[in-house]
Amino acid sequence: EKIRKGCNYIIKGAKFIVTHPDIKAPMGDDYMPDAGSMMALFSTCTGVEPLVMGKPEVYTADYLTELLNCRRDEICFIGDSLAADIALGVRHGMKTACVLTGVTTPQIYKKSDIKADICVNSIKDLCKIFQ
Fold first, then answer.
1. Tens of pLDDT, residues 8-60
2. Does residue 62 share a domain with residue 17?
3. CB under 8 Å to 117, separation ≥6 — which residues?
4. What pLDDT sits at residue 112?
5. Which of 18, 38, 81, 105 has its CA 20 to 30 A from that of 52?
6. What's 83's domain CATH number?
């Protein structure tokens, strides 16, 4: 019922805003649908593309440079999502580090066109690199 209502609101002109395009989120040993899955459902049903306000869009990059008072090329964005975290850095001129402890598995990373500057198995491995 909520999905039907949501689709009808969008078709009638409601703003369709999404925070991030991740398809799935890790839940222990399993996964659950994330915002990107719902985005695809509503977009397919309505024919309307959403405005993505969070990662990997420019709004996030602009916010970070203002918050940190630095240039984009001085930022290393670390994350576990190729579609959101790493894409943010790649699209907007930041260094990137992908950590394979969440959404992105080694198999997904290997097949993806989106590549980080550094890819590690864990934050612990990343800490060793930055020492």
1. 999 999 999 998 888 888 887 888 999 999 999 999 999 999 998 889 999 99
2. no
3. 76, 89, 95, 96, 97
4. 96
5. 105
6. 3.40.50.1000
Backbone Cα Rg of the chain: 17
Residues 96 and 111 reside in one and the same domain: yes
Query: What's the residue count for the chain?
Result: 131
Distance CA 43, CA 118 (A): 33
Contact 50, 42 (CB under 8 A): yes
CA atoms within 13 A on the CB side of 109: 22
User: How many independent structural domains does the chain possess?
Assistant: 2
Domain region containing 7: 2-52
- The whole-angstrom separation of Cα 71 and Cα 36 is 29
DSSP letter for each residue of 102-113: SS--HHHHHH-S
Residue that has been written with the tokens 């009638």 in this structure = 12
Q: Work out the angle between the directed axes of helices 35-46 and 2-11 (0-180°, nearest 10).
A: 60
